[in-house]
Amino acid sequence: MANMITFSKTCNILNQDIQAMRRTVVNKYPILVKLNCQDYIENGLNVDDSLQVAHRLANAGVDAIESSRTGINSLEKEDYYRNEARAFKREIRITLILVGGIRSYELAEKLVENEEVDYISMCRPFIMEPGLINQWASGDHSKALCKPDNACLKSGRKGTGVRCLVKSV
Ligand SMILES: Cc1cc2nc3c(=O)[nH]c(=O)nc-3n(C[C@H](O)[C@H](O)[C@H](O)COP(=O)(O)O)c2cc1C
């Protein structure tokens, strides 16, 4: 851990924020936290750090953690941080949601059925195919067409709106 004081302070702030949120929403809404499981940079967050944060979040009364990872360009392997997710599932006793790279119905189903995660979530595929879940629910389990070019992100950052550039050409 590069800087224990900063880490500890950050966790305390997080804890205060969660308490304030809980006071506001009481039990009417679940509180979900998206947590990067690893930074892959020098002195950045590693899996052990994020597990510590996750424990603190669970103790603070968070309902679920959505585990993510940087490096969202690399989709050669669809479940590119399944191992980190397994560590979370093993260690943390609250609902675990996995986001990042999932494009196949079959993989999503397997991850949940095998109890590697409780839920999966997806982001970029819905920019290209907003009807994807209805399509899967209707029995057409074709893989999401989204490619990891991140053009949707770039277009959002440029101020030209979040949209799929592949679809619009
Ligand atoms: C346009 C866009 C905006 C995003 N904004 C955020 C954000 O504000 N905070 C965040 O944690 N992740 C953000 N993400 C990342 C997604 O929540 C998700 O973790 C990432 O796209 C990987 O999931 P996917 O492979 O299903 O797209 C954004 C992604 C996109 C495409």
Automatic annotation (TrEMBL):
One of its GO terms (molecular function) is oxidoreductase activity. It comes from the Bacteria. Its EC number is 1.-.-.-. This is NADH oxidase. The keyword Flavoprotein applies. It is an enzyme of class 1 (oxidoreductase). InterPro entries: Aldolase_TIM, NADH_flavin_oxidoreductase. Keywords: Flavoprotein, Oxidoreductase. Gene3D superfamilies: Aldolase class I.
